[in-house]
Amino acid sequence: xxxxxxxxxxxxxxxxxxxxxxxxxxxxxxxxxxxxxxxxxxxxxxxxxxxxxxxxxxxxxxxxxxxxxxxxxxxxxxxxxxxxxxxxxxxxxxxxxxxxxxxxxxxxxxxxxxxxxxxxxxxxxxxxxxxxxxxxxxxxxxxxxxxxxxxxxxxxxxxxxxxxxxxxxxxxxxxxxxxxxxxxxxxxxxxxxxxxxxxxxxxxxxxxxxxxxxxxxxxxxxxxxxxxxxxxxxxxxxxxxxxxxxxxxxx
Length: 251
Description:
By secondary structure, the chain is an alpha/beta fold. The protein folds into 2 domains: 3-165, Spore Coat Polysaccharide Biosynthesis Protein SpsA, Chain A; 171-247, no CATH class. It has helices at 13-21, 40-46, 63-71, 89-99, 171-189, 196-213, 220-247; strands spanning 3-9, 28-33, 50-53, 77-80, 85-87, 107-113, 115-116, 119-120, 127-134, 154-156, 162-165. Strands 1, 2, 3, 4, 5, 6, 9, 10 and 11 form a 9-stranded mixed beta sheet that branches. Strands 7-8 form a two-stranded antiparallel sheet. Helix 1 runs parallel beside helix 2 (40-46), helix 5 (171-189) crosses helix 7 and helix 6 (196-213) runs antiparallel to helix 7 (220-247). The chain is globular.
């Protein structure tokens, strides 16, 4: 019984070496590439990864390729890692102890420590990601910002067990990603019935949730800017959902 690390990639050479160095101790590393045009595949071959390909087509995110990538793994357990994330030694040790436990949970949410405008943020900026699970019968919805559907019991790993997120997008880079991701979420959220009330409420609620309830204020200007980012994300998303209905002739 072992663990496969699964990494979805598209033009991911920026952080891929650091990512692969950190997963050397696992039984298998699977790189599911979406037809990269940079040095991603050369780096993956250099590290002896198992490489599979998923056609990029018009896909804007990795989610449509997630289930294919997971099912391309050989081991019973799978850890999904993005190409800009680092698996700490503590996390690796914890996961191997977990799979040896009698009655181990079938899936684990893992804390991810994020950078915000040049620095790792305080605890408020951590998020939980469902990234570790049994391969069999696990599927991943093909929409951006979704979690896998795991058959069985799911738990949270201790908060001191972390993934480190290297990504630190500038505002310019973030706006470009926001545009892609919100467009990818329109279909998923189209049945929510969002209208003018949601357009007013959701951005303000997301700001309050991040900056006040989530403790973003403890990170000063960085926390303020990130809370405003997520408010903007919600505003653009709801606007796109309303626009799609208007273009279809709906009220």
